[in-house]
Design goal:
14 helices; about 525 residues; 3 domains; TIM Barrel; eight-stranded parallel beta sheet; alpha/beta; globular; binds 1-deoxynojirimycin; Oligo-1,6-glucosidase, domain 2; Immunoglobulin-like; five-stranded antiparallel beta sheet
Length: about 525
């Protein structure tokens, strides 16, 4: 791996999702720590990331933003939010990371911008019928006086997907009202984003994570949803056939740059249960890869996991957690360990001991599979979903727009614990933007560093051994195994995961490369994984 010169580095890379607000706060706005992570904080912790053994960092949005949706409401796509740093600081960070063998992937948000973006402000000022409004979806309302939204679409964050402006028109926002949707049928929008891609490729970024990649195009008639007969590819705003043309154009740009400094990659964030529809996005002239959300959503169950693994097309990615979902230590510690983005459920009790044991086994399973692996910051420390954040400290618009029915995503976004015995655990000299549980004193980097039983040391060892044994290995071949057990070989290495309730015996001739927990006399205990040779 560690190949900065070229080649398909992304096919087997270990990519660390770095949630900028919650990684490390060094200087904040005007040089004073403000409880919000920043680029100087990341730079100061690059040695930690290099030692972890990752190949690339995916930075969540770092652009100027009112942070109504944690930066996924972008006010300027060509700059850095002053709370995070400067453009020059980003250039330096990209170069510093690369000098340590770590590539940079940025997060691009093309479905919508912030309502503070200059284009949206111009559209508001210009009034009905103006060309500035054509870059968004402005429409008159329904009802006698236009008092009803133009259609029945619902915001993904709760409530209607339309907001009315003082002159009487409504605008579309699939997410929060502060996130107006772009009209991708408008040539200005296409040209603008192609230019933004070049802007960041010119700065040396190796990849682009594309937010909400399946929703950019809309049926211009804006029909009501709810028609069960909608043909694949013709939903009013999800996974429409006409979205692919955008990615073919983007791929041509990425390929232009790939000649210099290694391949530039496009990674789509697309939640789509239909594997065949999802695979269309990774046709050879489109995106390089998409996140494997079926794997993330899958319960801790051998048959279900095997089915997802078998259904995953190549080039594969493997993801256990990200900033939108409950952390997997908590998910795997619940009786129902599946995850549904639209039905987040914090009412189930969580067994953190069980969840942690399974998360350790899941890490070894994930890192042995053929493809790229994503690590969401904090999973390498074994952090859990923080479910008891006081309501008045919550920030996620999902919590507010559903009036608390959906707890939202703050619990997965709590700042990292670095050191010390109490909050803010070395994250900042100020109060962190979300409160950290005091129990995380046992999960700080300082506490786990050098402890052979810690999650951190498991991740460090696993990432090192993955490079040596799995990254270049052929596709997997399933091996016969007892019920509830996953066993496969890739080349001369084997991975066995016991998801059953009883210990299973291990082949007597095998050498253990790494185990996720103690092995008992040649047997693999429940909820434990092992790498063998
Ligand atoms: C997906 C992002 O991961 C999520 O955090 C965000 O709220 C939505 N897209 C809208 O941008």
């Amino acid at each position: 791996m560690r190949d900065n010169a070229g080649g398909s580095w992304w096919r087997t890379a270990a990519i660390y999702e770095l949630y900028v607000q919650s990684f490390a706060d060094l200087d904040g706005t005007g040089g004073v720590p403000d409880g919000l992570g920043d680029l100087a904080g990341v730079r100061s912790r690059l040695p930690y990331l290099a030692r972890l053994g990752i190949d690339a960092i995916w930075f969540t949005p770092w652009y100027p933003s009112p942070l109504n949706d944690a930066g996924y409401d972008v006010a300027d796509y060509r700059d850095i939010d002053p709370a995070f740093g400067t453009l020059r600081g980003a250039d330096e960070l990209i170069a510093d990371a690369l000098a340590r063998g770590i590539k940079t992937i940025i997060d691009l948000v093309p479905n919508h911008c912030s309502d503070q973006h200059s284009w949206f402000q111009a559209a508001l000022a210009a009034g009905p019928g103006a060309p500035e409004r054509e870059r968004f979806w402005f429409r008159p309302g329904r009802g006698e006086a236009g008092e009803l939204p133009p259609n029945n679409w619902r915001s993904r964050f709760g409530g209607p997907a339309w907001t009315r402006v003082p002159d009487g028109e409504w605008y579309l926002h699939i997410f929060a009202p502060e996130q107006p949707d772009f009209n991708w049928a408008n040539p200005d929008v296409r040209a603008e984003f192609e230019d933004i891609l070049r802007f960041w490729f010119d700065r040396g970024v190796a990849g682009i994570r594309i937010d909400t990649a399946g929703m950019l195009t809309k049926d211009p008639a804006l029909p009501d949803t709810g028609n069960a007969d909608t043909a694949p590819g013709q939903h009013p705003y999800t996974d429409r056939d006409d979205v692919h043309e955008i990615y073919r154009a983007w791929r041509r740009i990425a390929d232009e740059y790939s000649g210099t400094g290694g391949e530039r990659v496009l990674i789509g964030e697309i939640w789509l249960p239909d594997a065949a529809r999802l695979a269309r996005y990774t046709r050879p002239d489109e995106l390089h890869s998409v996140f494997n959300f079926p794997y993330l959503s899958c319960p801790w169950d051998a048959a279900a996991l095997r089915a997802v693994i078998d259904a995953t097309p190549s080039p594969a990615t493997w993801v256990l957690s990200n900033h939108d979902v409950d952390r997997h230590v908590s998910r795997y510690g619940r009786a129902d360990s599946s995850f549904d983005l639209d039905a987040r459920d914090h009412s189930q009790p969580v067994d953190l001991v069980l969840g942690t044991r399974r998360a350790r086994a899941a890490a070894l399973l994930t890192m042995a599979l053929p493809g790229a692996v994503y690590i969401y910051q904090g999973e390498e420390l074994g952090l859990w979903e923080v479910e008891d954040i006081p309501d008045d400290r919550r920030r996620d618009p999902i919590f507010y727009r559903t009036k608390g029915k959906d707890p939202g995503r703050d619990g997965a976004r709590v700042p990292l614990p670095w050191s010390g015995a109490e909050p803010p655990f070395g994250f900042s000299a100020a109060q962190p933007w979300l409160p950290q549980p005091k129990e995380w004193r046992d999960l700080t980097v300082e506490a786990e560093d050098g402890d052979p039983g810690s999650m951190l040391e498991l991740y460090r060892t696993a990432l090192r051994l993955r490079r040596a044994h799995w990254s270049g290995a052929p596709d997997l071949a399933w091996r016969p195994a007892e019920e509830g057990v996953l066993a496969f070989a890739r080349g001369d290495a084997r991975c066995v995961v016991n998801l059953s309730a009883s210990p299973v015996s291990l082949p007597p001739d095998a050498t253990v490369l790494l185990a996720s927990g103690p092995l008992a006399a040649g047997a693999l205990p429940p909820d434990t994984a092992v790498w063998l040779r």
